[in-house]
Amino acid sequence: MSNTKIVIDPITRIEGHLRIEVEIxxxxxxxxxxxxxxxxxxxxxxxxxRDPRDVGLIAQRICxxxxxxxxxxxxxxxxxxxxxxxPNNAEIIRNLVTLSLFVQDHLVHYYHLxxxxxxxxxxxxxxxxxxxxxxxxxxxxxxxxxxxEHLESVQEKLSxxxxxxxxxxxANGYWGHKTYCLSPEQNLVHxxxxxxxxxxxxxxxxxxxxxxxxxxxxxxxxxGGVTSVADMLNPQRLNDxxxxxxxxxEFIERAYIPDMMMIVExxxxxxxxxxxxxxGNFMCCGGYRFxxxxxxxxxxxxxxxxxxxxxxxxxxKITEEASRSWYENDTALTPYDGATTPFYTDLNDDGTxxxxxxxxxxxxxxxDGEVMExxxxxxxxxxxxxxxxxxxxxxxxxxAKTGMQLLDFSTTVGRNAAxxxxxxxxxxxxxxxMSNLIENIKYYDETTWTKYVFEELSTxxxxxxxxxxxxxxxxxxxxxxxxxxxxYQTVAPTTWNASPKDSNNSRGPYEEALIGLKLCDPSAPLExxxxxxxxxxxxxxxxxxxxxxxxxxxxxxxxxx
Length: 561
Ligand code: CA
Ligand code: NI
Hints:
Blueprint: E1 4-8, E2 18-24, E3 30-37, H1 43-47, H2 55-59, H3 67-82, H4 88-114, H5 121-124, H6 129-137, H7 148-163, H8 184-212, E4 221-222, E5 225-226, H9 229-232, H10 235-266, H11 268-272, E6 282-290, E7 294-302, E8 318-321, E9 364-367, H12 376-385, H13 391-402, H14 412-442, E10 461-469, E11 472-481, E12 484-491, H15 493-497, H16 509-514, H17 526-533, H18 539-542
Antiparallel strand pairs: 1-2, 2-3, 4-5, 6-7, 8-9, 10-11, 11-12
Helix pairs in contact: 4-8, 4-14, 6-7, 6-8, 8-10, 10-14, 12-14, 13-14
Bound molecules: calcium ion (CA) and nickel (II) ion.
Calcium ion binds near residues 490 and 491.
């Protein structure tokens, strides 16, 4: 019997436009998969010919979610090109903002974009509120907003939506799907925190805006430092920031982590079956200094789940190719030389992707020629393998409470667990970073900008900004000629994870993670959504286009089925 193709387009509850096609056999097991970025953008082209001091405000428009990290990486790339070292205070303020975003991003991703793949909202309506309150106490000594009365009010709110026929954003779920594993009470506990996380993410936006001016499009970075001088010197502002982070810390400790433990318990079979496991190649560039000589994340490369061998990370091994992507260049190039001439080859006549040809706007980045998974899972695994004093205690605690092994994290559920642990680490260490800042100010170091004279800087230079950001390793690479931007390339985390196949026919991490997955009902492929969502896709970030020759970009069309 021949294989059947299933097309999911678009994948919702992500940023951007992603299409997934899978081929299932007669037992509904996925035998092949294709991830296709369905978006075409031109930010890298717009940057060409610009004054290097302007790149930040333009590059941050690459994405409407990850604005800050593109802003920061682009400005850091210019600083790197010119050899400008920013003051300590500037680095700390940049870290406070980026790490608050990590926390906000992880919370929003889990609760609002992903949790309903595990939590059946309609089942929560049948929960006994007294039992639900007891259930939450199995996973935490002080569960977040867990009184029976409060849970009753949550249930009332939910049933109000249902009765009025206004499920709204809950309207199109696969409710009642056979693979939902939580009890009605566990579902209710989760829905309670889903609603609480809505207001918390708003507060975190305020925290970011204290230093960044506004969000999502921040204004506080300039080449050489930050402009948040008045905020840094205002104790009330610092206190407002810490207040929000303290509230968030409570939520993570009493809701997010316990809820994740509940998911691990409920979906243990999925972990044991290694559902969503990719190739086991992980890459981290590390970063976020604090204190005297410590850093939050370690760098390193792991191949094929071999946790005994950690290679050191060497950025010169990064290349991008487009043999299966809708661009002309098929050879692997380093980002500094990256060329991108669109070459759209359309879909098949039946509206499916050209499985053997080009099929995505996402290019294929490779490290030393190999596919790499990036993100919280990579960071937690590399941190543990490298015995990071920051990461090990948190991971050990989570593993002790859930019985998970390190390899178990390399699954759909484990990817989420790693993200939750990372959110807790980022949130806790924000206090250390703030202490560093206050310490500096106390000793009259109020510098926030390194002075330079633009006209005296080299007219020709190359530089890069390389950062761990919520979804993984982000690189901005630029070349300056005649004091303007001559070439610009971004390699974003989702470019790594949503990568299509390459000239060796090696699958990207999304694709690899889908192979072998059994669908219980091919007309409701919830299992596929779980795997893909666990990576936290941001397709807007993944797809950038530039043409180094400055030629007209070719026209394209997208056919819908
Ligand atoms: Ca790019
Ligand atoms: Ni993004």
